[in-house]
Design a protein that fits this description.
Oligomer: heterodimer
Structural class of chain A: alpha+beta
Shape of chain A: rod-shaped
Number of helices of chain B: 14
Number of strands of chain B: 5
Helix content of chain A: 55-70%
Largest interface: A-B, 67 and 69 residues
Shape of chain B: rod-shaped
Radius of gyration of chain A: 65 Å
Number of strands of chain A: 5
Largest sheet of chain B: 5 strands, antiparallel
Number of domains of chain B: 3
CATH topology of the largest domain in chain B: Alpha-Beta Plaits
CATH class of the largest domain in chain B: Alpha Beta
Helix content of chain B: 55-70%
CATH architecture of the largest domain in chain B: 2-Layer Sandwich
Radius of gyration of chain B: 45 Å
Number of domains of chain A: 4
Strand content of chain A: 5-15%
Strand order of the largest sheet of chain B: 2-3-1-4-5
């Protein structure tokens, strides 16, 4: 059975005169009577006292709800064509609705709702029940749905309409689980947005909870439940931020530590470079000071002394640098036997070949600790390789490779290749070096020491002599073959010869000499 | 957070107890519960309430402190945004379910509609909701809410979008209509990032910290309003610009200080070279000084000392090296050597 709606319509325009109001009311009645099925409706006048006289300012009537839609449409159209301020009063069930307007549009919403039937029994009763259930539990439980189904049957509402009404009451997320899921997804998206801003372009910090709380209320989720969910996400977000901050702090600390270490290393390297630069400068100065001689002039000594002080070089280091430079310029005088080869170097520099030869002999005997004792094949082995190398290098350096032990080794090697037996080889070796003349029936060819050639014109390997290998200090220079053999063997061990070209010497002389000797 | 709406974008709800036979304290307590419930809703915590008090008949049996004008309430009125209608009516439903008291409910949706209902039944109250919702202007409600979010966040956050989707569903707006309204409320820029970019660019005009206040900032605030950039974001960007300007000033100062420091260091090194050479020369001079052989006057002393220094090759070498090492001009060298010799001459007089 359709519900009745009580209506009161009153013209409230203060600009209208009394007779105009009465005319408008009359037209209103005529308009409404003109509607279908309205001829039987009883319009009761609604009067007010105006200017001492009672005039009709409106009408009262009662219609069934089904007609309300068409009545509202007619009223809307009237206002559209003649927007007179009017008060409309509708009693729908227990609800009283008052609309006071001159705008046609203000009646549209009610008109559409009236035509949809949502406002009237039985649909409004069903919707109110569904709305109450949905509000209470946040969803329509199976029991509630069953109750609604029974109510639907009692109110004679179709299943389709009931479904629509249920959907309207429950909202777009009908179950509690769906509401929670949607809320959770939204919170997650919110924190994802905050994370992206935190990692990229920062924005002004704002509290997001009020809008999320609003969402929970709109969804019908209990606020404590929603807040608990929000707090979980918030805690996770804060943990992430804290972790990132800690990681950044750690990285910053590590970077600072590395930078500190790099700086310290840089400083250390700079210090080392400065020290090295000072040493290099001092070395350069040494080169300049020693370029003219084995020992710097007094002026240069002053320069070196001041340079050492200004560059903070320790005296011992300065000596070391100076020695190194001197060795580099004039040859090394290293000795394993503690022999000072300074004098030998000086004599060789001066090309004082004989004096240098005698100094060599003295140095070797000193190295062998054989003061005035004859050298034997056994004692020769004690000559340190370092000392042999020093003597050889000094002789080579100042004779441009003509003299020295290596030159003598090469002569011996060439004899080895030419001559087969030892006696010939030894004779050839001594003749090759210019130490012995060709033997004759009068002489065995030995030359006196003072007749040897102490000049650069002497044969290769002529110097230094091996007088220290002679069994006696007689005038003849005849080294003991046994010792010579030991010396050569020792030289081969200490300074093995590389494959080098054989120095040229007068082979015919050697071969002839050997032949005549034999 | 919610401002007084002045009944333009809001509705007014008044509830008045009709329970004449009930203990006024019970009614008073129920009203207070309702007020708390409404205040607990989002964005309504600052809602102002006005209260109705009991009649004289009620007051006759009450202590003086609780007479009308005292503290016993029989009803309340408040005003909230239109988009809160559903949530508030549901909250009323929950409250009525607990109190089960008969009340007069009046909803005023300005400027046109007034709904009244007397009931103690939850279901009758629930019937108010669909009727009230039909009276709401859908586009205005949606737009007002969208603008509220833009005013707060400058963009539609995921939560804002979710709320707007629910409003859209409830008031029956199409997706196209909602998108149009979103665009309308968002203003000329599509995203908050674009707004930030544009506002930052505009702020670059300001080159000095002092210029960031006053008229310039007033213009920027107007610009923020025009481009729907929230005040908080504008202030954030202002602080950011301020920080940048301060950093630039600080860096410029630092650069100037560094340049000064380099110059000071260079000067210090030059002074140190002079001092070191002076010391070196003094040592050299002292090494060669012979007290028994001092000159009769300063000039003779100077000449004698320099002659000795030049005579000994070793000392000459030291002196030459020292002069080369410190890279001093001849004028500087002469001045320093003269100063040292003068001091030594004066000191020699004391010996």
């Amino acid at each position: 059975m359709a519900e009745n709606v009580a209506c009161l319509i009153k013209v409230v325009d203060p600009q209208l005169k009394s007779d105009e109001v009465v005319t408008e009311v009359r037209y209103l009645i005529e308009d409404l009577r003109d509607l279908d099925d309205m001829s039987q409706v009883r319009f009761e006048p609604y009067s007010e006292i105006r200017d001492v006289a009672e005039i009709q300012v409106g009408i009262r009537f009662e219609v069934d709800a089904e007609r309300l839609g068409s009545i509202l449409r007619r009223l809307r159209d009237r206002l559209y064509y003649k927007p007179i301020p009017t008060r409309f009063l509708f009693q729908i069930s227990d609800i009283q609705l008052q609309i006071e307007t001159h705008k046609a549009g203000d009646l549209t919403g009610l008109m559409l709702a009236a035509r949809s039937g949502l406002l009237f029994s039985p649909v409004s009763d069903y919707l109110a029940e569904a709305e109450t259930y949905s509000r209470t539990q946040g969803e329509l439980s199976p029991t509630e749905l069953d109750n609604l189904s029974l109510l639907r049957q009692r109110l004679d509402i179709s299943e389709e309409v009931a479904k629509l009404l249920n959907a309207r009451a429950a909202g777009p997320y009908p179950t509690q689980a769906e509401k929670q899921r949607h809320f959770d997804e939204t919170v997650r998206a919110e924190f994802s947005r905050l994370r992206s801003h935190h990692d990229g372009q920062p924005i002004a910090p704002k509290d997001i909870w009020p809008v999320l709380q609003e969402l929970a209320e709109n969804l019908g989720l209990p606020t404590p439940e929603a807040e608990a969910l929000y707090q979980q996400h918030l805690q996770r977000y804060r943990d992430d931020i804290r972790l990132k901050a800690e990681q950044q702090a750690l990285k910053a600390a590590e970077d600072a530590r590395l930078a500190g270490e790099a700086k310290a290393e840089g400083d250390r390297q700079q210090q080392a470079q400065q020290t090295q630069a000072h040493r290099d400068q001092y070395r350069t100065l040494c080169h300049q000071a020693l370029a003219k001689g084995l020992y710097p002039s007094e002026f240069d000594q002053g320069r070196l002394d001041q340079a050492r002080r200004l560059r903070g070089i320790a005296p011992v280091d300065a000596v070391s640098i100076e020695t190194a430079v001197r060795d580099e310029l004039y040859g090394s005088i290293d000795s394993a036997a503690g022999v000072n080869y300074n004098r030998l170097r000086g004599l060789l520099m001066q090309q004082a070949w004989q004096a240098a030869d005698l100094e060599t002999e003295t140095a070797i005997l000193k190295a062998l600790n054989q003061d005035m004792q004859p050298v034997t094949a056994a004692t020769v082995q004690r000559l340190p390789a370092v000392d042999l190398a020093t003597i050889d290098a000094l002789w080579q350096r100042y004779s441009n490779g003509r003299f020295g032990f290596k030159a003598q080794q090469q002569v011996y090697r060439s004899q080895q290749q030419i001559l087969q037996d030892d006696p010939q080889r030894w004779l050839g070796f001594q003749q090759g070096l210019g130490w012995r003349d060709q033997p004759s029936w009068l002489s065995r060819g030995f030359r006196p020491y003072h007749n040897l050639d102490f000049s650069l014109a002497a044969p290769p390997g002529h110097l230094p002599t091996w007088r220290w290998c002679c069994p006696s200090l007689s005038h003849r220079y005849s080294p003991s073959l046994e010792v010579v053999e030991a010396v050569l063997a020792h030289l081969n061990t200490c300074m093995p010869l590389e494959a080098v070209s054989i120095p040229t010497f007068d082979q015919t002389l050697v071969v002839g000499g050997v032949a005549s000797a034999s | 957070m919610v401002e007084n709406l002045g009944l333009t974008n809001g509705f007014k709800l008044s509830i008045k107890s009709l329970e004449s036979g009930l203990d006024p304290k019970v009614i008073h307590a129920a009203v207070q519960v309702l007020r708390s419930s409404i205040s607990a809703l989002s964005e309504l915590e600052q809602t102002p309430f006005s209260f109705s008090y009991g009649s004289q008949r009620h007051a006759d049996n009450l202590p003086a402190a609780q007479t009308p004008g005292g503290t016993l309430y029989t009803g309340l009125q408040f005003e909230v945004p239109l988009d809160k209608l559903t949530v508030v009516l549901r909250c009323l439903g929950d409250w009525l379910e607990r109190t089960k008291q008969k009340n007069l409910y009046a909803i005023e949706i300005p400027p046109t509609y007034t709904l009244t209902l007397q009931t103690d039944q939850v279901k009758e109250l629930a019937q108010l909701l669909p009727l009230a919702e039909t009276l709401l202007p859908p586009q205005e409600i949606y737009l007002a809410k969208a603008e509220t979010y833009i005013a707060a966040f400058g963009d539609f956050t995921p939560a804002a979008r979710a709320n707007l989707a629910i409003i859209c569903h409830r008031v029956g707006l199409s997706v196209e209509e909602a998108n149009d309204l979103n665009a309308q409320s968002m203003g000329p820029f599509k995203t908050l990032a674009e707004k930030y970019q544009h506002f930052r660019k505009e702020l670059l005009v300001c080159k000095q910290e002092s210029a960031l206040d006053g008229d310039f900032w007033q213009v920027m605030q107007d610009k923020a309003v025009t481009m729907s950039l929230p005040e908080a974001d504008a202030q954030f960007l202002k602080a950011e610009r301020l920080q940048t300007l301060r950093t630039e000033v600080s860096q410029a100062l630092h650069r100037a200080e560094s340049a000064d420091a380099v110059e000071r260091q260079r000067h210090r090194e030059q002074q140190q070279r002079l001092i070191n050479y002076r010391q070196t020369f003094a040592e050299l001079a002292i090494d060669t000084l012979n007290l028994d052989d001092l000159g009769p006057d300063a000039a003779a002393f100077h000449q004698g000392t320099m002659a000795k220094l030049s005579a000994a090759e070793f000392n000459r070498g030291r002196l030459t090296q020292a002069r080369e090492f410190y890279h001093l001009s001849q004028t500087e060298v002469d001045a320093l050597e003269q100063a040292v010799l003068c001091e030594l001459y004066l000191l020699s007089g004391l010996l």
